[in-house]
Design brief:
The protein is α/β, with parallel strands linked by helices. It has two domains: 54 residues, no CATH class; 249 residues, TIM Barrel. It is 48% helix and 13% strand. The chain contains 13 helices and eight strands. Strands 1-2-3-4-5-6-7-8 form an eight-stranded parallel barrel, surrounded by eight helices. Helix 8 runs parallel beside helix 9, helix 9 packs parallel to helix 10 and helix 12 crosses helix 13. The two termini are 22 Å apart. 43% of the residues are buried. The chain binds dihydroflavine-adenine dinucleotide (FDA). Dihydroflavine-adenine dinucleotide (FDA) binds next to strand 4, strand 5, strand 7 and helix 12.
Length: 318
């Protein structure tokens, strides 16, 4: 996709006016269902059961971001409590302490209040702490998503602080940010779970690589740092070149299957997910659900012309 079209799509992803228009289109729900596993807890739990039965793990994201009031942040926290309780009630085999947990939730700190004026950082940290406590009791992992670069310092500070009590807490790093190779070095220590992705926001040249080849090269450098480190790399990409390079890297580092995992988004390259899982790899699918699908959906359209074409064809009914 051209850089201009991608930037336009990503700007549209943050436009409340377009959100109102697009979410009212009668076809939207059916089209969105390709990337989003439903709007209710019951629907996402059903999708989770199907994925677990196929030998894949899950990370579930309650959709929503950029919460602008405390009530919204508290409502998100309440949704995560309900979700974790429902996941905790699923029948599953015992997971040994320290072992890989098949169930995980992913959280966006902006949905938990990070952008609220004055004490947003502390509010998001407290909400994230409560989610970690509920998840720990239910035997579920938590990973904190990465949002735009203005939030990175606050997000990583919260992760570092909470890891004192919840050492399994994961963080996402975005290879398109110029700082990320250093962040990988700083965060590749024992027990650290880092989900490495390329990055999905429209970032300025001053902080991010904007050229695809540069982003891909940065991803491979960051992956090299994580693979050589002592933590648990989570290779979040659909890119065949990344998946091949990761396979070579983990073999060279003599990592066992339970010392890293592949991750992909719900509805994207499902056959590749199954192939990797059938070959004995741990594969986790990031499963979003909820009413506030607009920003997530638009970022998926921005990633790939074929996805945008699929949406436009549905719009004109062909
Ligand atoms: P890239 O975009 O280069 O695509 C390589 C190939 O993968 C394509 O040629 C195509 O075959 C396939 N592909 C990629 N995207 C596709 C799509 N949408 N539909 C169909 N095929 C597709 N970002 C972020 O900023 N913060 C975050 O917290 C997260 N979290 C996250 C979790 C997980 C588990 C994943 C997999 C991804 C994220 N992301 C993210 C999104 C990430 O930053 C990135 O935008 C997408 O994964 C697309 O980048 P790829 O690495 O897949 O490669």
């Amino acid at each position: 996709m051209s850089a201009v079209l991608r930037s336009t799509m990503l700007a549209a992803a943050r436009s409340p006016r377009l959100e109102r228009t697009i979410t009212r289109l009668p076809l939207s729900r059916a089209v969105v269902a390709r990337f989003v596993a439903g709007t209710t807890t019951e629907e996402v739990v059903r999708a989770t059961e199907t994925l677990l039965r196929s030998g894949r793990f899950v990370s579930i994201d309650y959709l929503g971001e950029d919460t602008s009031d405390l009530a919204g942040a508290e409502a998100t926290l309440a949704q995560y409590r309900t979700l974790i309780a429902a996941l905790g009630a699923l029948p599953r085999s015992e997971v040994a302490p320290g072992a890989v947990r098949p169930l995980e939730v992913s959280v966006k700190l902006s949905a938990l209040g990070q952008a609220l004026p004055n004490d947003g950082h502390a509010i998001a940290r407290e909400h994230a702490r409560q989610i970690c406590a509920a998840a720990e009791a239910a035997g579920i992992w938590v990973t904190v998503d990465a949002e735009d670069h203005t939030t990175t310092d606050s997000t990583l500070a919260i992760v570092r602080e909470l890891r004192a009590d919840y050492p399994w807490l994961g963080a996402v790093l975005q290879a398109y940010l110029r700082r990320t190779e250093d962040d990988c070095r700083a965060m590749a220590g024992p027990g650290s779970r880092i989900r490495l992705c390329k990055g999905a926001y429209d970032e300025p040249e001053s902080v991010a690589f904007r050229d695809k080849a540069e982003v891909d090269a940065s991803y491979l450098r960051c992956l090299g740092v994580l693979t050589a480190g002592a933590g648990y790399p989570m290779i979040a990409s659909h890119d065949p070149a990344v998946i091949t390079a990761a396979g070579v890297g983990v073999q060279a580092a003599q990592r066992k299957t339970e010392e890293y995992e592949y991750q992909m988004l719900y509805g994207i390259r499902a056959e590749e997910q199954q192939r990797l899982a059938a070959a004995g790899n741990h594969v986790r699918v990031y499963v979003p659900y909820g009413d506030q699908w607009y920003g997530y959906f638009m970022r998926r359209l921005a990633e790939r012309p074929a996805n945008l074409g699929f949406f436009l064809r549905a719009l004109v009914g062909t």
